[in-house]
Amino acid sequence: MHRPCGLHGWIRWWRFVDETSSEVARHRADPLASAVVQLDDVRKSFNRGTPIETEVLHGIDLVLPRGQFCAVMGPSGSGKSTLLNIVGLLDRPTSGRLCICGEDTTVLDDQALTRLRGLSIGFVFQYHHLISAFTAIENVMMPMLGHAHFPDPQMRERAAALLADVELAPWADTPVTQLSGGQQQRVALARALVMNPALLLADEPTGNLDSRSADAVFALLRRFNREQHMSVLFVTHNALLADRCDRTIRVVDGVIGA
């Protein structure tokens, strides 16, 4: 059974996660014991076994320590999105090894990958991908419902608390179609954080926002990164935002540059 990585201020608000007390104690005693992300010689090819087979990632090595906020930059078509999809367990590498929270994902079946992704990884994209028929709080609750299969008062409390954290408490019961672009992206951020993930993957989350809204969303990402000791991979074309990250990696032609 998958066991999600321990986090600072670990919250047992979901009933369906089972961890032994010894494991919790180990993570609390040494929360930096392992990297959240580790890629060893990861390669990705498309159209394998055909005349048009193309390798788009060429032997990627990357370690993302717990709590690090890392910008990912590079031109369009450089392999950034492919890299993020692999780290996010949305796609499998052709070869090499990927470990998430110390767990070797190359030996996991699809069901185990889905569980690991759901409990340990949060996603924020350039487009918010909210469910238009739902309110803000219902959208934030969705990842919890997907694992517990039924609503629970604690789930609503958790979602409401996160909406308050992103300064959207007054709009909790508002349909997301009635929110501004910046507000919708903050709902998406709250949804990404609701499972208390060890890793947040942000794929140009500020790309469709004006500068003021973009700065507000980035500040929230940075705040949660520091408060929860959550690792972040932040894909961006904005050099000013990248300069505010702990580290920047550049992906060019499927490799990580120096």
Give a brief description.
The chain is α/β, with parallel strands linked by helices and 258 residues long. The protein has a domain at 67-91 and 111-256: 3-Layer(aba) Sandwich (Rossmann fold), CATH 3.40.50.300. It contains eight helices and ten strands.
At CATH level 2, the architecture of the domain at 67-91 and 111-256 is 3-Layer(aba) Sandwich
What is CATH's topology name of the domain at 67-91 and 111-256?
Answer: Rossmann fold
CATH class of the domain at 67-91 and 111-256: Alpha Beta
The N- to C-terminal Cα distance equals 38 Å
Largest sheet: 6 strands, mixed
- Protein structure class: alpha/beta
Radius of gyration: 18 Å
Q: What general form does the structure show?
A: globular
Order of helices and strands: HEEEHEEHEHHHEHEHEE
Provide a count of the helices: 8
CATH homologous superfamily (4th level) name of the domain at 67-91 and 111-256:
P-loop containing nucleotide triphosphate hydrolases
Strand adjacency order, main sheet: 6-7-8-3-9-10
How many strands?
Answer: 10
Mean pLDDT: 84
Low-confidence stretches: 1-32
Strand content: 15-25%
Give the helix level as a range of percent: 25-40%
List keywords for this structure.
258 residues; alpha/beta; Rossmann fold; six-stranded mixed sheet; disordered N terminus
List the helices and strands and how they pair.
Blueprint: H1 21-29, E1 37-46, E2 54-64, E3 69-73, H2 80-87, E4 95-100, E5 103-104, H3 110-120, E6 121-125, H4 136-148, H5 153-165, H6 181-193, E7 199-203, H7 211-228, E8 231-235, H8 239-242, E9 247-252, E10 255-256
Parallel strand pairs: 3-8, 3-9, 6-7, 7-8
Antiparallel strand pairs: 1-2, 1-4, 4-5, 9-10
Helix pairs in contact: 4-5, 4-6, 5-6, 6-7
